[in-house]
Design a protein that fits this description.
Structural class: mainly beta
CATH architecture of the largest domain: Roll
Distance between the termini: 50 Å
Number of helices: 0
Shape: flat
Order of helices and strands: EEEEEEEEEEEEEEEE
Largest sheet: 6 strands, antiparallel
């Protein structure tokens, strides 16, 4: 058991028989009345954000979660198959648990979050940026480097990303997996 004094970003708690991670919190001590803590909680199963206010000092259950490194192997009709980097144990993850399934490619390193007590997978996170090769886009025109216009490009995973006009087929780009958008050209 812990109290609201133990709150920190990323802490996983049990609330209303669901697992949540704290994304934001703020301790408030008004001039009149008791102190409280405003929080934004992210449901680990559905991904929905919930705003909740806890009375200061209230007891909460902390959920034990573990982040483990895995490597993506392949996808089939049963789900996405991953292999643990050290134990070579394989696990199947459903698409709704992956933060950007359209950007995952074979051999991709990911972190899978497990509930330590029940050993159930909760979430699969790609790194913040992935390097992908553009398989098709309309050709760029000389002098297009100055404008802020974008065009559609298909990357090697099949996902479609908006890229600047000067980016061409065959180039590697960095894609932000949190926003699912172009970040920059990959360094050679």
């Amino acid at each position: 058991m812990a109290t609201t004094a133990d709150f920190r970003n990323g802490l996983c708690i049990e609330h209303n028989n669901e697992l949540y991670t704290i994304t934001e919190f703020q301790h408030v001590k008004p001039g009149k009345g008791g102190a409280f803590v405003r929080t934004k909680l992210k449901n680990l199963k559905t991904g929905k954000i919930l705003q909740h206010t806890f009375t200061a000092g209230v007891k909460i259950n902390i959920a034990r979660v573990e982040r483990r490194p895995y490597q993506f192997l392949y996808k089939d009709d049963t789900g996405y198959h991953f292999m643990h980097n050290e134990t070579l144990e394989q696990v199947i993850i459903q698409e709704e648990l992956i933060n950007a399934p359209e950007l995952i490619k074979g051999g991709q390193e990911v972190e899978i979050m497990f509930h330590a007590d029940t050993e159930t997978p909760l979430q699969c996170e790609l790194p913040p940026f992935v390097e992908l090769e553009i398989t098709f886009t309309e050709p760029g025109v000389k002098g297009d480097t100055v404008t802020n216009a974008f065009k559609l490009a298909t990357v090697e995973t099949g996902a479609i990303v908006n890229v600047p006009l000067f980016v061409n087929t065959g180039e590697k780009i960095k894609v932000d997996t949190r926003k699912k958008e172009y970040s920059e050209r990959a360094k050679k």
